[in-house]
Design a protein that fits this description.
heterodimer; A: 239 residues; alpha/beta; Rossmann fold; 5-stranded parallel beta sheet; 4-stranded antiparallel beta sheet; 6 helices; 11 strands; globular; B: 390 residues; alpha+beta; 2 domains; 5-stranded mixed beta sheet
Chain lengths: 239, 390
């Protein structure tokens, strides 16, 4: 379904169609010969997703495994609309994401696709509670008790009232993961979310993510420097 | 929560300086517009002559007395005066060349009779109702405007006779009578006072009555134009006064004083309005700059809010609302200070003998509300642009 919408004085197709999505329909992401411009000069392996035609099918659990500099963060930023310097086309179902305006993006990010960014994007002055509420107040997803339980599951329940700036990177990563889960989504895109977590904490975090994805019938993409985190992924993508 | 993220950790010095600047600008703006309007209204409705209207005559000197120079105006002199760029209009005042006397015709006042001098002027110079200020032969009475000095004289006479004095309103209900005459004939006409004047020394009559008298009761002495009625352009009384000095013209001082006072005060308030507008503009710029500073300092926060799903409109509105409150405080304070200041200023003016309308003027409020709306709109566009750019 494509609507006509007025933006900056001109009519054009936009992607704010989320309100019209059938409740149980889950979004598919399709890459059509996408090549980030800064990576165009590099020699990519034959199985690389860059320049290929492929799709992230509904509900898939995907690992994106690559060494540094191959474009893992570029992949995340491209799907979040932060980067537009690429050739080819990315579709959310049949919507070309290059046509989305800032308001469209805010709707998609709020309702269909969640992110754990590598730099976490927390508010350092705000407490853990405030960081989580800032997102949850927007989406009305969890009760305070649920969020406390999730913190407990990741063993940081004592940090509820602590400002994020005094937390360790590992603790901040866990807060960012819970924040990302505090919304409805079809896809959860995570950029090295466990880079500062020990094996046990990473495993518990992945378990929480898996549980939430199952609840929503959603898929996720997890970028990693090679560590599988002892999880049975549906598919592994190469860069 | 958005307010806490965007505004809690800001240095507010620049905001306070800009708020003080805006407050002063708004206060001066509302005050100067209010008093400019009131100054321009000053004197209206009190006199029968229109605004900025004066009567001028030539200065009488020893030369006039010796008939070396004339006190009447020639046609070319009148035409020359009309050409001056500070004169809006100028017309001669017509005097009677027939004999005329005024007498009381009422039991309310003692009998009183005096030869009088009557004049008529172009109706465009007066504020008398055109329907009242008309006369045709056969009408029940002739409407007249009486010099207030004449009423004072009448009251002096009444007082000497031990009779109660006559107020303006009572005088209007008393019947008077004109006797028009020349060497051959005389006629009586009933007279009614329709107004009083401090500015004209003769009794004013409608032009049609003057024409009737001059045509039907001619005397051997033709009437001369010794006085001119002039309307001076707004704020040009300085030029007009210089012209009068150069041409040895004189005018009744009171009407000149009001005109000059209005010119000077009007110019001062206009300058103050200009300064206020510049102040409001500059303070507005500082506030916009502060808003831009907030946006650029919060680039990370705005970016993060957008990334977790906040709509640009929500963030823009949070920024706008904050400044709307700031602008509302500025506007409210300036109106409050103006209202308090106005109470004292009006009191000072009354003590100085200047009675102006003490009610608030709509335009002055409209000006600050307009400034408030402009501030809000500029701030909204600025915030929207800043958020979308982040």
């Amino acid at each position: 379904m494509v609507l006509k919408h007025r933006w900056n004085g001109c009519n054009r197709k936009i992607g704010t169609v989320i309100e019209y999505y059938p409740k149980n329909k889950r979004m598919k992401i399709t890459f059509h010969e996408v090549m980030p411009k800064p990576l165009a000069h590099l020699q990519h392996q034959s199985k690389s997703i860059w320049g290929a035609h492929f799709a992230l099918e509904t509900g898939e659990k995907i690992m994106l495994n690559a060494t540094s500099g191959k474009g893992k963060t570029t992949f995340t930023h491209l799907l979040s609309g932060l980067r537009k310097d690429y050739n080819g086309t990315v579709f959310f179902d049949d919507h070309d994401i290059s046509q989305f305006n800032p308001s469209d993006w805010s709707s998609w990010r709020r309702k269909k696709i969640a992110f754990v960014f590598q730099d976490l994007q927390l508010f350092p002055k705000l407490t853990v509670k405030e960081n989580l509420e800032l997102k949850n107040n927007l989406t009305h997803t969890f009760s305070e008790q649920t969020m406390r339980t999730m913190l407990e599951a990741l063993e940081i329940e004592g940090k509820w009232d602590a400002p994020c700036e005094i937390l360790s990177m590992g603790q901040q990563q866990r807060v960012a993961i819970i924040r990302a889960l505090a919304q409805p989504f079809d896809w959860l895109i995570m950029d090295e979310p466990f880079s500062h977590l020990d094996k046990g904490n990473a495993s518990r975090a992945l378990e929480l993510i898996d549980e939430r994805c199952a609840e929503l019938n959603a898929g996720f993409v997890l970028t990693s420097l090679g560590d599988q985190h002892e999880y049975d992924y549906d598919r592994e993508l190469k860069l | 929560m958005l307010k806490k993220i965007l505004f809690s950790y800001q240095n507010k010095t620049q905001l306070i300086v800009a708020m003080i600047g805006s407050f002063l600008g708004f206060t001066f703006l509302i005050t100067s517009i209010h008093y400019l309007i009131r100054v321009n209204e000053f004197g209206r409705g009190e006199e029968i002559l229109g605004n900025n209207t004066v009567i001028v005559q030539k200065k009488v000197s020893a030369y006039n007395s010796m008939s070396i120079s004339k006190t009447d105006f020639s046609k070319s002199e009148i035409d020359n005066i009309k050409k001056q760029d500070f004169i809006a209009s100028a017309e001669p005042i017509v005097s009677n060349s027939f004999g005329v006397s005024l007498q009381t015709d009422s039991d309310l006042v003692p009998y009183f009779r005096s030869d009088v001098f009557v004049q008529s002027m172009d109706p465009s110079f007066t504020k008398i109702n055109a329907e009242e200020w008309d006369w045709e032969e056969g009408d029940d009475f002739v409407p007249i405007v009486l010099p207030r000095d004449f009423l004072v004289m009448l009251n002096t006479f009444a007082s000497a006779k031990g009779i109660p004095q006559v107020s303006d309103e009572l005088a209007k209900s008393i019947d008077f009578k004109f006797t028009l005459y020349n060497d051959d004939k005389k006629k009586w006409e009933q007279v009614k006072i329709v107004g009083f004047t401090n500015e004209v020394s003769a009794i004013l009559v409608p032009a049609s009555f003057m024409k009737y008298g001059n045509n039907n009761f001619p005397t051997s002495t033709p009437s001369k134009i010794t006085q001119l009625m002039m309307r001076v352009k707004e704020g040009k009384f300085g030029d007009f006064e210089n012209f009068m000095d150069r041409r040895s013209l004189s005018s009744k001082e009171s009407s000149m004083v009001v005109g000059k006072l209005k010119s000077v005060a009007g110019t001062l308030f206009s300058v103050l309005i200009g300064i206020s507008v510049i102040t409001v503009f500059l303070a507005g710029l500082v506030l916009v700059q502060y808003a831009q500073l907030i946006i650029s300092k919060n680039a990370y926060e705005i970016q993060t809010l957008l990334r977790i799903g906040y709509a640009p409109k929500t963030i823009t509105m949070a920024l706008t609302k904050y400044f709307v409150v700031v602008f509302a405080i500025i506007t409210g304070l300036s109106i409050l200070v103006f209202a308090i200041g106005k109470y004292f200023i009006d009191d000072l003016l009354v003590q100085g003998g200047i009675h102006i309308d003490s009610t608030f003027t709509f335009m002055s409020f409209a000006a600050v509300i307009l400034a408030f709306i402009i501030y809000t709109l500029v701030n909204y566009w600025n915030a929207r642009k800043g958020v979308l750019k982040t």
